[in-house]
Amino acid sequence: MISRKAAAGASLMAAALAITGCSSIRENRGYIQDASLTDAVQPGIDNRDSVAATLGRPSFESQFGEPTWYYVASVTGRKPFVRPRIKQHSVLAIKFDAAGNVISAERTGIEKVAYLSPDGDSTPTLGRERGFFEDLFGNIGTVGAPGAGGGAGPGG
Predict the structure, then answer these.
(1) DSSP secondary-structure letter at 137?
(2) How far apart are the first and last CA of the chain?
(3) Is 55:38 a contact under the CB 8 Å cutoff?
(4) Tens of pLDDT along 46-90?
């Protein structure tokens, strides 16, 4: 027979495990920002080399228009077995002139995030629809057939 203390201890352990299993999981994604370092970037004073030495390489760079480095940081939270949700989001965009000097350093937050909802589970493509059996048996008789080409091998 189990004593009352052992039963109370077991139920307390079960409750503790249940509570920790439902707690939120916090994840940092992307660039981990340090406010003192990002505030140190000064327009008109810094250049590409000093920004790279202070902040490191950017998350990505602009491909068109003004040369801009983007440092993207997100903090997500999720419960087990659930899709993560963005709790905090910030983007530091550092723009450079043609000589490589910092023009501006702009910070934006979650208000600029665009949420997209795709239409359906598949992407429409050009061409005809093929069924399972047509994919499975479609090439029977075409390999090595006269006039099909490709049957002569190398050099022939």
Answers:
(1) H
(2) 87
(3) yes
(4) 999 999 999 999 999 999 988 999 999 998 888 878 888 888 889
Residue 108 contacts residue 101 (beta carbons within 8 Å): no
C-beta of residue 148 within 8 angstroms of C-beta of residue 142: yes
Q: What six digits make up the tokens of 72?
A: 């993207």
Instruction: Give burial (CB, 10 Å; 0-12/13-18/19+) of 71.
Output: buried
CB 29 within 8 A of CB 89: no
Beta bridge partners of 47: 101
Contact between residue 70 and residue 58 where contact means Cβ atoms under 8 Å apart? yes
Query: In angstroms, how far is CA 76 from the centroid of its own chain?
Result: 12
Q: Is the dihedral of CA 120, 122, 126, 128 positive or negative?
A: negative
Secondary structure tally for the chain: helices H, strands E: 4, 5
Domain range list for the chain: 23-111
Under a CB-based contact definition with an 8 Å cutoff, are residues 73 and 32 in contact? yes
Residue (of 53, 63, 64) closest to 102 by Cα position: 53
